[in-house]
Each structure stands twice: as structure tokens, then as C-alpha cells.
Design a protein that fits this description.
about 90 residues; mainly alpha; about 60% helix; Mycothiol system anti-sigma-R factor; Anit_sigma_mycothiol_RsrA; Znf_put
Length: about 90
């Protein structure tokens, strides 16, 4: 099922395409034209609006529970040392 913002069938976007791109919209990683098309579809499609709302809540929950946490200092030091000692070798075939 696909709908435009006025509730009429929309041939540009189908629900599977919108659901695949919801994270781009949530993370502000799409251009303004794509953002407008996605929002127009979501506003006119209750199924996609519901999915968008759920994904928005998940993103908010993850940010609340995991935001701002830093790795323990010992782990950070071990990783830094490991990165500094990493060698990259190229073997032509």
C-alpha cells in the first residue's frame, strides 16, 4: 500500500522503500528532497507512521541508556597501544 500526503495513492514511494530509509530520516542523513518525500508518505500512511514512531522511540531509548558513556580508561589505553603497534603490510599478488 502506498499513499501520498493527501491520502491518494502514491506511485513514487512504496512502504518497503520508506521503511528501509526511516533511519536515514531519523538520523538526518538524507537530502531535503528525500526528507520531504519520506515525510509526505509517512504523514499519509498509518502503517509507516506507526513504524516511524516505533523506530523513533527505539532511537530515543538507546540515546538515553547509552548516550555519553565512555569506555573504561584501561580499555582505552590498551586499544590506543594496540593501534599504535599495528602494522599494515601489502603483498602484491
Amino acid at each position: 500500500m502506498t499513499y501520498s500526503s493527501d491520502g491518494n495513492p502514491d506511485l513514487e514511494l512504496d512502504c518497503s522503500a520508506v521503511m528501509a530509509d526511516i533511519w536515514l530520516l531519523l538520523d538526518n542523513e538524507c537530502d531535503s528532497a528525500a526528507k520531504e518525500r519520506l515525510k509526505a508518505h509517512i504523514d499519509g500512511c498509518s502503517q509507516c507512521l506507526s513504524h516511524y514512531g516505533i523506530e523513533q522511540q527505539i532511537k530515543s531509548l538507546v540515546n538515553r541508556k547509552c548516550g555519553g558513556e565512555r569506555a573504561p580508561e584501561g580499555l582505552r589505553e590498551r586499544l590506543t597501544i594496540s593501534i599504535r603497534h599495528t602494522e599494515v603490510r601489502f603483498r602484491p599478488e
